[in-house]
Amino acid sequence: MTRQTERSPHELPLDDHEPLEPGGVSRRGFLSSVSLVGLGAAVAPLSSNLSVSIIPEAMAQGAPASGAPAQPSGPQALDYPGKEKGLVVLGERPLVAETPEHLLDDETTPISKFFIRNNGQLPEPATNPDAWKLTIDGEVNNRLELTLAELKSRFQPKTYRMVLECGGNGRSFFQPQARGNQWTNGGAGCAEWTGIPLAEVLQAAGLKDTAKYTAHYGADPHLSGDTTKDSLSRGMPIAKAMEPHSLIVYQMNGEPLPNIHGGPLRLVIPGWPGSLSHKWLTRITIRDREHDGQGMTGTSYRVPKTPMVPGSTADEKDFRILESMPVRSIITAPANGTRLPAGTREVALRGAAWAGDLTVSRVDVSTDAGQTWTQGTLAPPRNRYDWNRWTATLQLPSDGYFEIWTRATDSNGKMQPPVAHNWNPQGYGGNTMHRVAILVG
Ligand SMILES: Nc1nc2c(c(=O)[nH]1)N[C@H]1C(S)=C(S)[C@@H](COP(=O)(O)O)O[C@H]1N2
Ligand SMILES: [Mo]
Predict the structure, then answer these.
(1) Could you give all domains of the chain from N- to C-terminal order, each with its CATH number?
(2) Most exposed among 46, 162, 312, 318, judged by the fewest C-beta atoms under 10 Å?
(3) Which stretch is the leader sequence (predicted)?
(4) 53 pLDDT band (50/70/90 cuts)?
């Protein structure tokens, strides 16, 4: 299912024009040694015969962090039907792959570039999608059992472009290393989702006064094959379920929802951890209390209420469920590792920013490690929960090596921090400023 690139920095084929195929580096924490010797392995778009990479090891992407269980050295490019090879495999069992920031340069993330996160095995693709069944039960007056065909004919579909982001996005920026897939910023994408507002289906089922929380179930078998276990079963307060943008989705970017993204039917619950956006959705049970399914307990999708000593043992009583995701911005062009011609004094940047349930109020960029900042221009979102595309123009004082930093600020005035904040064992909330390295000359 995957292909290992297995290239050392010096073995890159000269005809490889992929701008940022990472190779042969071990990914370290964001702030570990920053060195200019040939540690990274980017192929600069403007100079395919560049012999050394300009990407400091600390900024390289794609390999497991040091201290991770033994894996082949070097990143593994995804090899999956319909997916770009530039996606980076973070895990094979279950299959998890992230999208390097420079592949998030499209306004709407194409399916071919959209990240993949599974907790269990992939179910077989549905042979008759319209016959797929969804059950709504629990604290409702009328238990519903609807086929996808009935769902489509009984309710009015809505289409919104919305960010889907893994709860662990940015995890690799924590030190000491947090447990789980070592996402950089690529556990996110922004697609057009078509589906039926969950609220309308819940209204049709008739919520009882006791209805408090949802519980989501899907068709993906547990990794172990144990049929008594769910690979994942998360839920949310009824108020979030009733938001107009919480959708039961059957189309992605206008196409039938692909199997790898939960087709034929999934939830998309924007702003909150991606784990609520249940794939291969078969049942939503309404509960009279918080859900306790797979992924709801312990320190899963939870953050400390009071800051803990990084690396220390968690007291689970001190944790709360992670709800809205934190503000984040990424630079999508130029790619990390780009080499520009000598004399270049102006760089046009493109990027994206989003802020969970909130909106983005501004994006700023810096070329001097945050001593001075230049404000970017935000394009308006199409609808709530869409990302903001942004642009900025930077002046460079000279040739040489620069790191471009970006930070977004949310509508509550909170800004991305320079280092991952509020350490927790499973590494939620790592929304550090994004950095890319460029070399002029
Ligand atoms: N049934 C099911 N739904 C699931 C998951 C899963 O493992 N099983 N993973 C969740 C997580 S953790 C994320 S981040 C998103 C990822 O969606 P994607 O693979 O379409 O990008 O799906 C969510 N829905
Ligand atoms: Mo996730």
Answers:
(1) 111-321 (3.90.420.10), 325-440 (2.60.40.650)
(2) 312
(3) none
(4) low
Burial of 221 (0-12, 13-18, 19+ CB in 10 A): middle
Please, which pLDDT band fits residue 54 given cuts at 50, 70 and 90? low
Opening angle at CA 374, ends 373 and 379, nearest 5: 135
Q: Which of 351, 336, 358 is nearest to 402 (CA)?
A: 336
Closest by Cα among 92, 94, 125, 117 to 223: 94
What is the model's pLDDT at position 75?
76
277, 280, 302: residue to mutate for ligand 1 pocket, most atoms within 8 A of CB: 277
Q: Ligand 1: which of 232, 250, 325 to mutate, judged by most atoms within 8 Å of the beta carbon?
A: 232
pLDDT over 50 (residue 130): yes
- Pairing assessment for the beta strands 247-252 and 188-197 based on DSSP bridges: antiparallel
CA-168 nearest atom, ligand 1: 14
Q: Which residue has the tokens 């172990």?
A: 224
Count of residues making up the chain: 441
Q: For residues 55 and 37, what is the distance between their CA atoms, to the nearest angstrom?
A: 9
- Would strands 266-268 and 247-252 be described as parallel, antiparallel, or unpaired? antiparallel
The reported pLDDT for the residue numbered 423 is 97
pLDDT(63) > 60: no
CA distance 262 to 245: 18
3-state secondary structure of 404: strand
pLDDT: is 10 or 438 the higher one? 438
Q: Which helix (H) or strand (E) holds 118?
A: none
**Tokens, residue 274:** 């991606």
Higher pLDDT, 78 or 68: 78
Cα–Cα dist 348/438, whole Å: 12
